[in-house]
Structure formats: C-alpha cells, structure tokens
Design goal:
alpha/beta; 5-stranded antiparallel β-sheet
Length: 269
C-alpha cells in the first residue's frame, strides 16, 4: 500500500513500558520521515506530555492531543483546530454522576492543553505518570471552578472505583452532548460530542491533502478504536484490548518488542 501518513498512539503503543522511544523505533520513524511520510502522534496526552518524549521520537510537526480534540504544531504552537466541551455539558454530567457516586474528583484541560484545573483533593490521588504533570503543581480549586469554563478534555476519577466502572456509569446515564472513552490511564476521559482520534485525524489529513487510504494507524486502547477503523490500515498491538484487535487490519508485536517499528520497516521495504 501507499503510505503518506503514520498516525501512532504513544503509551502502550509507540513507547515501551519504561516509557521511552527505543533506538529501533526512532530509526524506523526517521526512515519514514526521510521518505516524506508524515509521522503524527495521536494521543490522550497534552503538549506537556508530548514535550517529554518529542526529542527522542523526532516529533516536531503536527500532533493530535486530547484524543483528537485539537491539532497543534509542536515546533511553534500553532493550532489547526480545537473542539471544546461546553461548560453547561460538563456541569450537567458532573451533577448527574455525583448524584449516584460519592467522592468523585474532576479536572479540566484548557488553553491548548497548557492549563490543568483540578478539584481540591485530585492531586492527592494523582501520580506524575497520569498527566505527565507533577501533582505538587496541580493545586486545587472548588468544583464550581472546574466546571465553570469549556474544556478540551474533562477528567473523571475516583479514589477506589476502577475507570471501567466509571465509564459504564457514564454510559448508563443516557446523557448526550459528549464523547467518553478510556486510554488506559486511571480515569475516564470526556471530549466534545463527536470528537475521537478518528475525527481529529480526518481533519488533519484534509488539511494536509492526504487520503485516508494512505494512512497507517497504530493503537492499543479503547480510545484508538475509531482511528484504527478509519485509517486505510489499522494496526493493533499484541496486548491490545479485544475491541482494538477487532477494529484493526493486523496485529503486530507488543510495544516492548518494537511492534510499531516492525510494521514500518516492512512497509518501507
């Protein structure tokens, strides 16, 4: 197949479990770029999390953050688009959840992913790996302030309940006006209605003049399913969830076995 763009998830996919970019993976990404192929990270992370590994991966162009909610240039910060959740939608969802589940905690990602507004108590159960932010820098505000403004990504978590249980509860509410997913992180992620990694990738490809048939996408988690279905060739990692395997055209080795690099090497011949 003709390949013009490689779209790759990061955690559990491109990065190994340390998490880092291996020498083999970096060489494969460089080889693709030398052929004129766009290499685009498509991630639940924000720019702060991308910057932590951008140099190692050679990322300096377009990136899709917050599960496709916005596209940003990593070299100059230029935005192509940003889809925000309205404050009213966030508030309605939070109120409905709090009516059935006590002790929930919320956070809001704003301002091109640079601002993280966390509820009092959120930082106490967060780790650096969760948002690639030191919990000591998160601060804490009353819930009303978390819910007071539009959000690129709205985060829901609980000190004890598993994300999958929270996800099921959100789905069972019957509310509309948002998209909800899981990325493997210890919280539920909510984006604007209709926003997925697939919709973000489609908008970026339209901007670049690239047909979906010429896109290869890699992923391992629930938030990657739509992207793998949309791409001309979707690739699931070996230890991906069953839904991800069902969405993909092929399965590669795990992230600790350079699964992404193996496929790129084969496609480049």
């Amino acid at each position: 197949m003709s390949v013009r763009l490689i779209a790759t998830d990061l955690d559990g996919t491109l990065l190994d479990s340390t998490p880092a970019v291996t020498a083999r993976t970096r060489a494969a990404l460089d080889a693709a770029r030398e052929r004129g192929i766009h290499v685009v990270p498509v991630t639940a992370r924000q720019p702060i999390g991308l910057r932590a590994i951008a140099a190692d991966a050679g990322f300096d162009g377009w990136a899709l953050c917050s599960n496709g909610a916005y596209a940003v240039r990593l070299d100059d910060g230029r935005m192509l688009f940003a889809e925000e959740l309205p404050a009213e939608t966030i508030r309605s969802l939070a109120e409905a959840l709090r009516a059935s589940i006590p002790d929930l905690l919320f956070a809001s990602v704003r301002d091109a992913g640079e601002t993280f507004v966390a509820q009092h108590g959120y930082a106490a159960i967060a780790a650096l790996a969760d948002h690639k932010r030191d919990p000591a820098t998160m601060g804490g505000v009353p819930l009303d302030q978390v819910l007071a403004a539009p959000s690129l990504k709205f985060v829901i978590r609980h000190p004890e309940l598993a994300p999958a249980a929270l996800f099921d509860t959100v789905r069972s509410l019957g509310l509309t006006g948002f998209e909800v997913t899981l990325s493997g992180a210890p919280f539920v992620e909510v984006m604007a209605e209709g926003v997925t990694k697939a919709t973000g990738l489609a908008r970026l490809c339209e901007h670049l003049g690239i047909d979906r048939a010429d896109v290869v996408a890699f992923g391992d988690a629930l938030n990657d399913v739509e992207m793998l279905r949309w791409a001309g060739h979707g690739v699931a990692m070996a230890d991906a969830e069953p839904l991800v395997h069902d969405a993909a055209d092929e399965t590669t080795a795990s992230n600790d076995e350079d699964g992404v690099a193996q496929v790129i090497e084969r496609l480049l011949g």
